[in-house]
Amino acid sequence: MRRITTLVGTLAATATLALAPTATAAPAAAKVPVNVWASDVNTHADPYTTSPVTGQAGPGTVEAVCQAPGGSVSYGEYYNYWWTQLDNGSWISDIFISGGNNDEPVPGIPYC
Length: 112
Known about the structure:
The protein is of the alpha+beta class. The longest helix is centred in the N-terminal third of the chain and has 18 residues, at 2-19. The protein is globular and about 35 Å long. It has one helix at residues 2-19; strands at 32-36, 41-44, 53-57, 60-75, 78-86, 91-93. The chain contains one helix and six strands. A hairpin with a 2-residue loop joins strand 4 (60-75) and strand 5 (78-86).
């Protein structure tokens, strides 16, 4: 009888655990396709030109996750302190993304 009671107790505990709510992962950040108009633009580990270079992007479409202020960048007549984080975690200056203005975030890309 003792084995049956223990077995029933174990099954009840297992059933209780199975019914317990489970944590759900947060939804992934939405990706926004953006156009990098320049060729071979350096991407960085952080939103500053002094941050290590992680690769290059452009010309063409890349996936943006969000944008945030960072170090100021100028290129010809363009200047901006806003940076966009790409889906691979690297950062690119907003001056190289089509659709923005000087010292303003690019419309349509969420803030970080």
